Amino acid sequence: MSTPAPVSMSATLAADEVLARRRRAGERVLAMTSGEIGLPVHPALRERLAAAADENAYGPVAGSPALRAAAAGYWQRRGLGVEPGLVVAGPGSKALLFALFLAIGGDVVVPVPSWVSYAAQARLVGARPVPVPILPGQGGVPDPERLREAVTVARAAGRNPRSVVVTVPDNPTGTVAAPDTVRRFAAVARELDLVVVSDEIYCDLVYDTSGPAVSPAVHAPERTVVTTGLTKNLALGGWRTGVARLPDSDIGRALHTRLVSVASQIWSSPPAPVQVAAAYAFGEPPEITEHIARSRRLHEAVVRAVADRFTGAGAALHPVSATCYLYPDFEPLRAHLAERHGVRDGSGLAHLLLERHGVGVLPADAFGEPRSSLRIRAATSRLYGDSDERRTTALAAPDPLELPWIREAVERIGEVLSGLTNSTARVPARVPEP
Amino acid sequence: MSTPAPVSMSATLAADEVLARRRRAGERVLAMTSGEIGLPVHPALRERLAAAADENAYGPVAGSPALRAAAAGYWQRRGLGVEPGLVVAGPGSKALLFALFLAIGGDVVVPVPSWVSYAAQARLVGARPVPVPILPGQGGVPDPERLREAVTVARAAGRNPRSVVVTVPDNPTGTVAAPDTVRRFAAVARELDLVVVSDEIYCDLVYDTSGPAVSPAVHAPERTVVTTGLTKNLALGGWRTGVARLPDSDIGRALHTRLVSVASQIWSSPPAPVQVAAAYAFGEPPEITEHIARSRRLHEAVVRAVADRFTGAGAALHPVSATCYLYPDFEPLRAHLAERHGVRDGSGLAHLLLERHGVGVLPADAFGEPRSSLRIRAATSRLYGDSDERRTTALAAPDPLELPWIREAVERIGEVLSGLTNSTARVPARVPEP
């Protein structure tokens, strides 16, 4: 390369650092910027990490046999059986995604909207993201017809898209693409000979456990790489652990060789003590499964309450069915926001919420949407308490909204939003789901 | 990019995995391939990691304030004072080096020989390595005159070298570039406007503590990035922790911004519990300093004994003055090796040593030397014992060569080498240092 690749700080992490500084300065802030999960480490995992503190060898680049076997079992229980030899562990699924883009090469198709780092990572490896919009309310998966069109146009223009990334369930929208959309998407990805990189880190956070998200690996098993980690379901972001499941096919085996080589040159191996605890977690003993179920119910309760405040204030919002994210659209209030607050885009709206009210959210352009969009993403995962004691209480609470610190946070959001939009509906009716 | 970057598995890690498989299969192997340090975790660090097992937040991308302050103090005590705001921590100095190459952009000048991953990382980020030989016996730093020539030629050919990486003390040669060489190198790097990336991970492993290695940051402070970690001095490779010290200059501050952005998109933050223990280690309390001193003395004793076996067998070897590496050259035995064993290059020699004798070493071409070279790199750091008990005993031993398992390993190397070369000198005289 002759000039360094363009790169900007991860929008979520940057916003988090700004909020942390304001909090340290004594300001009252409501952090809804990043999806960091503000919940404690499960005691069993804490103990296993502590007991593994003498593990100081690198071990295999792809992760320990125990961790890979546990991850394979985790996928097996979800209908995605895989041999442990096709599992690669890394220091976070973010690092694995970056290494995958490097290993696959070519340009990367990204949904619009999508997580802040896909497009940034693609640019870092010298690729260009090919943006393709989602279908309304079906976040994380590019509209299959527009995918075909965009890739055809890109190839005709001499570009070389080789992969497409999807997020099932989705960040930022908190929605889950319908099974039929995933099926049609997978068929088009095969037709276009694209490798599918399916980020399923929110897989365990679908509220309705009777209807789990469908992975594209079901429909295009020969070309779909699945990644996940323990950052979201077990709040272990700071431990840095993720796993990738490679397809059992020629594509998959060739990619496995390249991915492990890339990993060996960038990070050597995932942190060894963390691998021991991660292997335990992926084994899904009942105490861990129950912990995840509690966090899922907590997210659902708080997300729904916050969603009511947004819709009550007049924002449009597709029903959230997974994760800890909301992606409300203030388009119905565009005239009012412009006239009353001089706000004309998502960035202006996020700025107003932060500067005037101490409420941190991210504008939609961080997720690849046009700057003019009045969408924002809000995460509820930092509202559960500012001490481990409160967070533990929140996890165990039958109705988390009865806890004063959570109720206050939700009410504060309601007040800020109704103040912003002059709405009077302070406790709006719940919006029915389809 | 239209095709994926070329990449091969890290030679050291690949060789390690082969040896581990052979050992599991019950074969007798002597692992001298990788520089992984086979020594136990210091109990104080083990305790601190265990106590930090509830740390699950990402924290700042650049690492915790405590870790950055501790690393700044570590450098301050070595005459390289820096404000903590210019320190960036990552999951291993390997990851930091990769991110630095990405952040700096352009082609990368690498010494020949040099660590297996610099050139591989440069290729991964789409750059081309510009190889420049070292001066004899002064490993890790390109010959200043040949550096000027190579960069001038590369620029005339339209290439854009923007950085040069050095290793002080050096892997693979176990030597330390002379202060005057470093001074002249730094002057040429400034003249050529190159950013210097100085990998100083072996800084604490110079045998003669009265004459530490000189960092190029002393002579070109405005353009030298220094990296280090705890992998070598405290045997914490599996914990994945490293730090970078950026220059206090316009170059340094611009690079800091880019480096943190790259880090935010690849790994988010270093593993949080490890950061707590690393902060303690970089604080250098007496128990840690003493532990490092013991490991340094252990390396020295075993390296010197093994070096004697190599020179006694007729290989040429520049005196080793740091690290746990030897880089003997079998050129004086070329005719004999070809005639008797059909060995014509380093790769053939390494193959013979492994297949016939179970002795794992790496050929010089892994370090960028011509394939025809008869140099190999041998690391002693896995000879200290195969249990934590033996390793702890080795660390404490006044004369480690009196321990039966270390003596046996050294003697076995001697036997293999004399068998290979028909030399009779089984306990050769020590080669005098200059």
TrEMBL record, chains A, B:
Domain Aminotransferase class I/classII large, first and last residues per copy: 47-380
Protein's name according to its UniProt entry: Aspartate aminotransferase
Organism: Streptomyces rishiriensis
Gene3D superfamilies reported for this sequence: Aspartate Aminotransferase, domain 1 (3.90.1150.10), Type I PLP-dependent aspartate aminotransferase-like (Major domain) (3.40.640.10)
Keywords of this entry: Aminotransferase, Pyridoxal phosphate, Transferase
Essential cofactor(s): pyridoxal 5'-phosphate
MF (Gene Ontology): L-aspartate:2-oxoglutarate aminotransferase activity
EC number, UniProt record: 2.6.1.1
Enzyme class label: transferase
Domain of life: Bacteria
InterPro entries recorded: Aminotransferase_I/II_large, AspAT/PAT-like, PyrdxlP-dep_Trfase, PyrdxlP-dep_Trfase_major, PyrdxlP-dep_Trfase_small
PANTHER family found in the cross-reference section: ASPARTATE AMINOTRANSFERASE
Family under the similarity heading: Belongs to the class-I pyridoxal-phosphate-dependent aminotransferase family.
